[in-house]
Amino acid sequence: MTERARDWAQRVGPDIDADTVERLMALDPDDQTGLMARLLSLFESTLRQQLAAMETALEAADVPGVRRAAHALRSASASFGALHFAQACADLERIARESSAQPSPACDEALRAPAASWGSQARDLLSRVQSAAAAARG
Question: Please, how many CA atoms are within 13 Å of residue 118, restricted to the half-sphere of its CB?
Answer without folding.
Answer: 31
